[in-house]
Amino acid sequence: MKTVFLLILSNVFMTFAWYGHLKFKNVPLWQVIVVSWLIAFFEYCLQVPANRIGHGVYSAAQLKTMQEVITLLVFCGFSVLYLKEPLKWNYLVGFGCMAMAVFFVFKKW
Fold first, then answer.
1. How many Cβ atoms from other residues are within 10 Å of residue 6's Cβ?
2. What's residue 17's pLDDT?
């Protein structure tokens, strides 16, 4: 659970680093880049330990799959709550198709 918790936190930081500036289009691009890098530093401080801790339990492919699904979930919340963009049905279907990959990656064959 520690790995999942750290991945969720790291994705919150990275989502703000990548997309948070979209509400501040009047701010010069160079300033947005600097602030994004500063936010991303904290993402790395969580992501790297999450992968190191998790690699004892999960394979690298499983960690990456978890990270991508968590990214989609965090982004959906961010998009609706922060950016005030609607979550359309076709987005959910597309994200659902990506989430189905979890079955294939985690299934013991």
1. 20
2. 95
The contacts of residue 87 (CB under 8 Å, 6+ apart) are 76, 79, 80
Q: How far apart are the C-alpha atoms of 109 and 92, rounded to whole Å?
A: 28
> To 5 degrees, how large is the angle CA 56–CA 4–CA 36?
110
Query: Helices 29-54 and 60-81, interaxial angle, to 10°?
Result: 140
Question: Is 26 or 103 the better-scoring residue by pLDDT?
Answer: 26
pLDDT band for position 107 (cuts 50, 70, 90): confident
0.90 exceeded by pTM: no
